[in-house]
Amino acid sequence: MSPEKISYFVLMGDSLTDRGTIANKYLWGCIPMSWITGLDKKSPDGRFTNGYAWSDHLSAGIAEDFIIKEVGKEYKMDATDISDAVIAHDSKVRAHVQDSYDLDDDLVVRYKGVDFVRNYSEGGLSAHDYSWVPSSSLSRFFNRMVVSTLEEMREKMIKYDETHQVSDTQKKSTLVIEWSGANDLITVNERPTIGEAKKALKARVENVEELIKKGYSNFILFNLPDLSFTPMYQQKSEYERDNAQSCSLYFNERLRIACNELKIRYPNCSIECFDINSLFTDIIQHPLKWGFDPEKVSTPYYGSEDFYNENGSSPAKGYIFWDTIHPSADMHALLAHHFYLKYQFKYNFIAPDFLGESQRKEASSTISELRRQFIQEYGTRLAKDKNSFFGSLYRSNIDYKNASLEEIFRHALYEKGYRTRASITHLNWIDKKGNITLKVPPLETAKMVVEAKEGIRRDPPEEERISKRI
Fold this sequence. Notes:
By secondary structure, this protein is α/β, with parallel strands linked by helices. The protein has 2 domains: 4-354, Rossmann fold (3-Layer(aba) Sandwich); 357-469, no CATH class. Helices cover 49% and strands 9% of the residues. It is built from 20 helices and 10 strands. The strands form 3 sheets. The protein has a 6-stranded mixed sheet with strand order 5-6-2-7-8-9, with helices on both faces. The longest helix is centred in the middle third of the chain and has 28 residues, at 238-265. The N and C termini lie far apart (73 Å). Residues 354-365 and 456-470 have low confidence and may be disordered. Pfam families: Lipase_GDSL. One of its GO terms (molecular function) is hydrolase activity, acting on ester bonds. Keywords: Hydrolase. This is Thermolabile hemolysin.
């Protein structure tokens, strides 16, 4: 049987997968969550680590794999030839690589204008919904009230599908990767228990089944690392460590069984359980083998003497943990690498362009489709601005829901429409210098018309430029 073709990815989870979402969020519309979480002082990129998260590394790695396959097919080049061409600034290869993707948006990663990775992950997320559940601890009750849940993320995902009219074909070529449950054991509850593990497991299984009903069929569920190995529990009593370990192992065994049961119940679906715990355990027990410092195994990087560097960098060299519970950026990179190695042959990761390329280009080239993309992108950015601390000060200076392509280009390129420009750059209509990158006639024509109308003001005659310099 040939591997399932996968061109789209949906990531669901908590702080381990969060690409900056909680850092960009405002509590009650006015209090930055980056202050509450402390990310503004200890994280350079809004992630719960000292750099990029595993989800960033995976997204970038797959996008680069797309590029290599594309360029290799078109120019008959292998990966080494492509690397040499990039270093040599080969224009034909550079055109494929430059602005093909970026990691600036915490919610999506686009490959040549297509949302190929969607991220529904937030720091603090719990699998089970604990909101309004009483607690003897005021701080835990507050956490239960403000953290997101797996169900809420699923609702956002379904809303996106409806808004963007995601087809059944696209859903069949989407891999849903879900990793949650740790906060159910250590954040919204006083201590890990078997009872809370069961609730989290039930929520994760329900999430898969609900998404199967919506047409998704490819799933990978991560198990939990042994929580007793984290600095948080290494600082506690042996009793607490044993309890954390037994709950972690129970959780993982029941998740394995649940995945097997789901496979039997849904034989036409691909449902995998990724054993991250075995990797974590091996790294902690044999740190030198993996390039980590044995003396730093249980030491969090944040707060250590190595954390404060005069040059402002934060390499966390030799550290497994960033803080008392979250992995360092090196660990995140290692996790993404092992995930890719395990599944690169089970699935055929192929760029969205290769799935019905002619149909996608035809749809993208229509004016109505281009305007729909812009309205969605601009509206998302405007809503994010209005939900920020100074949200009441933000407004739109373009009638974005009714703007023509010419009006969009004029506002973006000549009227200081920063939000408009950011939107069409992210949609891959233009590059960062304002040059057309999505080669479709309606865009090229609209930009040409605007440039013609703006030509005198933008490009005065050569003799006029010379006289002004004199």
